[in-house]
Amino acid sequence: MAGSTLGSHFKITTWGESHGKGIGVAIDGCPAGLPLTEADIQEYLDRRKPGQSKFSTQRKEADAVELLSGVFGGKTTGTPISLLVSNKDQRSRDYGDIASYYRPGHADYTFDQKYGFRDYRGGGRSSGRETIGRVAAGAVAAKLLGQLGIAFLTYARSIGPVSIGKTPEELLRGNLPETRREILASPLYMPEPLPCQKAQEFLESCMEKKDSAGGIIECIITGVSAGIGEPVFDKLDANLAKAIFSIGAVKGFEIGDGFAAAAALGSENNDSFGIRDGKPAFSTNHAGGILGGISSGAPIIFRAAIKPTPSIASPQATINKQGEEIEISIHGRHDPVIVPRAVVVVEAMAALTLLDLIMENMGSQLSYLEQLYKN
Amino acid sequence: MAGSTLGSHFKITTWGESHGKGIGVAIDGCPAGLPLTEADIQEYLDRRKPGQSKFSTQRKEADAVELLSGVFGGKTTGTPISLLVSNKDQRSRDYGDIASYYRPGHADYTFDQKYGFRDYRGGGRSSGRETIGRVAAGAVAAKLLGQLGIAFLTYARSIGPVSIGKTPEELLRGNLPETRREILASPLYMPEPLPCQKAQEFLESCMEKKDSAGGIIECIITGVSAGIGEPVFDKLDANLAKAIFSIGAVKGFEIGDGFAAAAALGSENNDSFGIRDGKPAFSTNHAGGILGGISSGAPIIFRAAIKPTPSIASPQATINKQGEEIEISIHGRHDPVIVPRAVVVVEAMAALTLLDLIMENMGSQLSYLEQLYKN
Amino acid sequence: MAGSTLGSHFKITTWGESHGKGIGVAIDGCPAGLPLTEADIQEYLDRRKPGQSKFSTQRKEADAVELLSGVFGGKTTGTPISLLVSNKDQRSRDYGDIASYYRPGHADYTFDQKYGFRDYRGGGRSSGRETIGRVAAGAVAAKLLGQLGIAFLTYARSIGPVSIGKTPEELLRGNLPETRREILASPLYMPEPLPCQKAQEFLESCMEKKDSAGGIIECIITGVSAGIGEPVFDKLDANLAKAIFSIGAVKGFEIGDGFAAAAALGSENNDSFGIRDGKPAFSTNHAGGILGGISSGAPIIFRAAIKPTPSIASPQATINKQGEEIEISIHGRHDPVIVPRAVVVVEAMAALTLLDLIMENMGSQLSYLEQLYKN
Amino acid sequence: MAGSTLGSHFKITTWGESHGKGIGVAIDGCPAGLPLTEADIQEYLDRRKPGQSKFSTQRKEADAVELLSGVFGGKTTGTPISLLVSNKDQRSRDYGDIASYYRPGHADYTFDQKYGFRDYRGGGRSSGRETIGRVAAGAVAAKLLGQLGIAFLTYARSIGPVSIGKTPEELLRGNLPETRREILASPLYMPEPLPCQKAQEFLESCMEKKDSAGGIIECIITGVSAGIGEPVFDKLDANLAKAIFSIGAVKGFEIGDGFAAAAALGSENNDSFGIRDGKPAFSTNHAGGILGGISSGAPIIFRAAIKPTPSIASPQATINKQGEEIEISIHGRHDPVIVPRAVVVVEAMAALTLLDLIMENMGSQLSYLEQLYKN
Question: What is the pLDDT of residues B273-288, one digit of tens each?
Fold first, then answer.
């Protein structure tokens, strides 16, 4: 596996390091005929790029994407799509020290143990810049899913101890396009102004204390018809769990009621069925839209817990490569919280996972094959 | 993918339905030379089999395993290991009704939507019996990991609202073999007698109310050296998340401090490094033994949230295949809680995931290849 | 990979040894809704089973298949299909000697080098009995392909120096159902009586000399529409080459004109296009139905070279495990030629490969996805 | 699968079209610690690049490679290696006509059937330029194999009807480094001067007649220890067959005696064992170094049949997109024979396949795992 490839049908392979020549992704398996431009992808990358607010790293990167292959006449050709974002503002001198010691909460030590040495500049492959490949590929997946009527609403549910008040169900009952606009306009990608204001104050206090914060990202997916996901190992929730957990800094994942379901009774947790507008519908959505690993037609709802940024300027105890105990303070350009920029990464990973399983589902019934195969 | 195969190196494919001829698994990629008997596997299956206490289904199944291939002279040969558990006590008559309607909280509706029809007897492929293949294969993985000095401590952390008091760290500081014995002797696989007693009382009240309960399973893995797990998509925590979330009824997964980390400060959540007994060691283990997706050498600690059993005898609203709203009460042989029997399933999935990534790591350094390749 | 799994969509995993408890296969990814019985599979296995003529081993095996999962109400359910053939006539005593030395032309030495030891009884996993799993799975694939209008004509083109006279094109112009019946009725699976008679005489002379023979198997596939196969690595011809070459004893593979094309001129080898019956058609079929790795709509034609059976009763020089040079004569129950029994194995592998790529092709165009996805 | 990814351990994904921005490859799974520079890769690409002789296309491409990731301090880091060759001399105007019709022997028609449309400029993804990604990745694999003592001797065995005289065995008995130099110095990559001269004369006559030629490429691999290759589907010869057959224009593949073995007797074809220099050795090598799909320690020898270049200037019958019969003559910059430039492509594919299986073999014995796993 080696770990930089994801998916079986819409398969992506990402590459690149923080201070190398660039970051990229090759997408193999995108169906032919999807209208696609660099602008489609740039829109997603812009939600991830640094410098959108004072709560993100001051590294200057336009993160402009180049589409190198797989598109002809404005449409995908069915052959691999190669996307490249060149690195422009590498300041490797900031990272000279890192070579010699292991930053707490980072992958420095584990990379050295795994590979014998590491590209220490800006964290190398374990940098947050690695997610550029995910977001670029996710933009293509999301565009394709949009053609099928599938939409995402992804936002920061909480930053540190500050949480929004509305439940996903309440958001779903509101004006979704309007909510989506509010989220994109919010500096923290939060869908409610007051918690967003409080969260900013909390972050300012963190920065003053040379400390950092985490939070929870929530994602709602609408328009997913019933039947997506494979029984047993490639359940829709299992593949989402993997995809989301593969984002650095994620420490928890839950679907629907999640951990709360563990304390509920069966009679409380089951979503009973009924008929609404002539179609099967669930009275509640404790399950988060997935039953037996397969989408039920209800909105899919999941959450990811993001740990606080490990790079902090306050002093920390650690060891160096010689095995001596030392004290360090991390300087350089770091985000006091990565939650806002990680929102689009979560959405991208969800889109990639869902599209892969929708394509997988094409093989589920002989009648589908008979329908498509023209003898 | 199709979903019944897991792993890239130690690769398993499971098959079988609740009321078919049996359940089985083929393991491809088990290294040659591992001593292996049916008894090694039976020991694991016995922790999962029904009828161990009054809190599990009364279906009578010995779940005796047959080893059909891949072992010669008491050792694995390197070729596929096929394991078979025949079904003995299928009472399909209990399930005649199910054919016509969709049970809330079950995969009945989603299977029908996906495949056009389903094997409704006892839930078919979506039955808990499906996990027999996982546990049988996990027993082989766990035996192999044991040869490398890796051990598991898996238990019910909570049943419904009743939780044990000790933290994983406290359990690790105790007498591990003794704790392991206590867990195996406990009817609910809980490591503390008093909460176990309270949980039993809680379950009895659930059964009286024709209701069911869920809970949280915790797993501690010791002896994992630093360097296991792939950066980017095949992170150790990402693959664990998928493996655990692929178990039916899991609704949440977290590593180390998990969701609590989202509300912590960076200074609180980072585990600082020091030297203990001449070797690198962490002062705390908020990370749960994984940094950047790669094992750090500290014990790996994770939790899974299990929803309450969806089969309950109290009346529920649902629809039938004709799209009519009906009310049902589910009878038959069901577990009021599946947490105790799921403990070994979680352990099996963790063992399979970890072994797969340990094998993957063999290719991480050229020096390893030079060491093994005899020209 | 580990090597006992094949396919990405219609994925099979085989297991079992010559003198173990049995041989089997698990098929993951068979679409739901295919009518399937044990008789469908037995028909294929019967073409492979021993004892059909004096030119095959006298081991007595009915090779009766059991269908253990994945079928309900006479149709595939979309979940894994497990097939089992128990071994009945293992005479391991015949193979006691083999443990101590390496038979020329067999995998004895290479298995020992790879795994450190081997299951030597009847060749263990490297026995021809391993192909039972392939044929059983291939029967399911062939049945499904039949539903799509795809048919196979597979036969022995030559045995030793004796070859049939007709070209594939001539066979295609004849009465195909009649030819198929003739092939199935022929003791050597040859479509022409005279060469078949000569080949039998040749084989009798081989047997008298305690020697063995090889031959060439040819396969024609009709009804494959244009567009199947993936550019670059998963070309239809590349995947066929792998599938066929994975059958023990295959030493060569060619498509269309094959090796002869290497000596032809471009003007001779190109198949020009025209219109026949209002549809695009090729004037010739030097390409064997594949252009750029993708089916062209013309019949697919390929050949496999099968080496002579390595087990011969005449004396041979070899070494034992102690590294001493010795002379051996191989007794026991062996086929003087495996070509006739390998015909159905070739057909099975072709069916598996083709179906896998037909399923892969479902994801090639966005319009296909839009057609199947019901929002 | 989608088809642009190959390998399970040393996994490559190629991308790019003839007249797009460039061609590239991402390698995932290269072990850390291999010294690697752009020059290592350029050396391989230079053997493939156009304009080396009058027998190749006059398109001007330096095919200069850029190493974008995965190397730090001159060594591979274990993370993905991204390689890029920008296209410089695209003359798309040459290809305007092709949009409207289907060239015989090309993938024009099959791409249109598969995807609904195609990037017709220079053949798009089905161009010979696609092999740049293979050769670049193969250079890395070959360098790594060189560290293990494995070497390749690859050359044109025949061009059209002109063949070299020496057998592989005779070449192996000669001075290998010297032979390698001769091959690299030969305009047709042939190891014998006289046949090379005759082949050039033959090619000149082809060019005069506006025709083209094919040929046979032979590859010898030395230094492969016994035990490489997986039984059943991932046999070393099966994976080589696929890898080589995935190169456009290959129509046949054989190992050792190949098709000739089909007519031989068992007593002739078996390679008997003996002891030479105190080690097991084979008296002959009819098997081409592979027994039961696993390397035997003898040199690996295989051949690939390459069809004549389909682009010829003499008139050909074909159809256009409107389904009308037309006559065309293909102009532009084409190779009258691709065999010489394909020699390094064959070598690259063999290196990729072999390395992948060598890495796979690391998991074959428990003792290997015990040796590498440091608890």
Answer: 999 999 999 999 999 9
Query: Is A270 in contact with B109 (Cβ distance < 8 A)?
Result: no
Could you read off the pLDDT of D129-170 as tens digits, one per residue?
A: 999 999 999 999 999 999 999 999 999 999 999 999 999 999
User: According to the model, what pLDDT value does residue C95 have?
Assistant: 65
Residue of C nearest to D312 (CA): C266
Best mutation target among B362, B364, B368, B371 (most D Cβ atoms within 10 Å) is B362
Neighbouring chains of C at 3+ CB pairs within 8 Å? A, B, D
Chain D contact for A356, CB < 8 A? no
- Considering only the beta carbons, identify the residue of C158, C294, C309 that sits closest to D266: C309
Q: Which residue among B241, B245, B305 sits closest to A261, beta carbon to beta carbon?
A: B305
> H/E/C letters for each residue in chain C?
CCCCEECCCCEEEEEECCCCCEEEEEEECCCECCECCHHHHHHHHHHHCCCCCCCCCCCCCCCCEEECCCEECCEECCCCEEEEEECCCCCHHHHCHHHHECCCCCCHHHHHHHHCCCCCHHHHHHCHHHHHHHHHHHHHHHHHHHHCCCEEEEEEEEECCEECCCCHHHHHHCCHHHHHHHHHHCCCCCCCHHHHHHHHHHHHHHHHCCCCECEEEEEEEECCCCCCCCCHHHCHHHHHHHHHHCCCCEEEEEECCHHHHHHCEHHHHCCCEEEECCEEEECCCCCCCEECCEECCCCEEEEEEECCCCCCCCCEEEEECCCCEEEECCCCCCCCCCHHHHHHHHHHHHHHHHHHHHHHHHHCEHHHHHHHCCC
Q: How far apart are alpha carbons D105 and D174 in whole angstroms?
A: 39
ipTM metric: 0.97
Beta-carbon separation of C365 and A29 below 8 A: no
pTM above 0.90?
yes
A321: helix, strand or coil: coil
Of B32, B363, B375, the CB nearest to D359: B363
**Does residue A52 surpass a pLDDT of 90?**
no
Quick one: closest CA in B to A288, which residue? B251
pLDDT at D335: 84
Residue from D143, D362, D371 whose CB has the most chain B CBs within 10 Å, to mutate: D362
Does residue B28 belong to the interface with chain A, where contact is any CB pair within 8 Å?
no
A residues 64-83 lying closer than 8 A (beta carbon) to D: 66, 68-70, 72-73, 75, 77-82
pLDDT at A334: 77
Residue A371 in contact with partner chain C when CB distance is under 8 A? yes
Please state, in angstroms and rounded to a whole number, the distance separating the CA atoms of residues D144 and D150.
Answer: 9
Per-residue confidence (pLDDT) for residue C335, from 0 to 100: 84
